[in-house]
Amino acid sequence: xxxxxxxxxxxxxxxxxxxxxxxxxxxxxxxxxxxxxxxxxxxxxxxxxxxxxxxxxxxxxxxxxxxxxxxxxxxxxxxxxxxxxxxxxxxxxxxxxxxxxxxxxxxxxxxxxxxxxxxxxxxxxxxxxxxxxxxxxxxxxxxxxxxxxxxxxxxxxxxxxxxxxxxxxxxxxxxxxxxxxxxxxxxxxxxxxxxxxxxxxxxxxxxxxxxxxxxxxxxxxxxxxxxxxxxxxxxxxxxxxxxxxxxxxxxxxxxxxxxxxxxxxxxxxxxxxxxxxxxxxxxxxxxxxxxxxxxxxxxxxxxxxxxxxxxxxxxxxxxxxxxxxxxxxxxxxxxxxxxxxxxxxxxxxxxxxxxxxxxxxxxxxxxxxxxxxxxxxxxxxxxxxxxxxxxxxxxxxxxxxxxxxxxxxxxxx
Length: 413
What we know:
Elements: H1 3-25, E1 33-38, H2 44-57, H3 64-81, E2 93-103, E3 106-115, E4 125-129, H4 135-142, E5 146-152, E6 156-163, E7 166-174, H5 188-214, E8 223-228, H6 232-238, H7 244-247, E9 250-255, H8 261-270, H9 272-296, E10 300-302, H10 304-313, E11 316-322, E12 327-334, E13 337-344, E14 361-367, H11 368-379, E15 382-386, H12 391-398, E16 403-407
Parallel strand pairs: 5-8, 8-9, 11-15
Antiparallel strand pairs: 1-2, 1-4, 2-3, 5-6, 6-7, 10-16, 11-16, 12-13, 12-14
């Protein structure tokens, strides 16, 4: 995956998480919050027809308040569908709509659309409850990535993908390797030679399947997992059958009993620790470099204010943002000069005293991460989201305010 694609993926992941967190906070006074998951191959006209049918059936709801709320939500969804042509965007989309409790006995109608989630929506789903159905989207965000899978023994092999949490079998092969018992009329030496040749030919065939599938995607892949019984998987890897660029992507070999399509799922289960560590390792490397610069170099910046200032100067090479950062930035107009401060996302906008003594006027308030990313994109700065699932990642949030950076050059400070 290219740097630009990786940044776009991280940004999309953050934007999805932000919307999901917002949706999880909403509550309906009854079963009136509607969630619709639409696969990319489902025609929009079919979805609109289903929504129309649900609108008609909602007339049977006994509670007038709930009935009106559900029908209003479905009308809003149908209006939203008019913006799309024959099919949804790639990977599908999800529409949430409903009357939420806004306090003081009042309700507010909201509609949110999430297009092109990180993984394809596999089936159409209509859900109406007192909460929005966000679980399927949350599962998509838990584990992203593209991994190649190979399972083999001397009888058969399967090659496929792990996309997020979805295992996809793509290619399979059966071997012509004879059993260990030779047939009559052959010498033991000749039989052993023929058997080794058949094993070698089969390994080459499996490597060919893997090369055809993986090599075109080698720059997008996060790694390759190989499974099977011993000594088969060891012979396959030690024999350098795979393309040399794929060999470098192998994360590990794992004992797997089955080598049919179910064996691919067994391989993912067996490699669960490695997969989890691999995702965190990318974040660890970023934070280790930051701490090296912090202690022994001069290319580290941290804290919202200082990092933002360096971003504005164009001196930040990589912007490091904690995935747990939940703050807004408030920009004040102080007599033609801008001043800003950060506040908790749920906090009221605070009063501000301008440094020049003029009266502060709120110019804008926006998500702090969106604010920083916009500056970073304008300055050509790479953005990395850092997990808190390891010690240094947690320190980014607790000790450095969730924002830090690695500079392009020493500031001499």
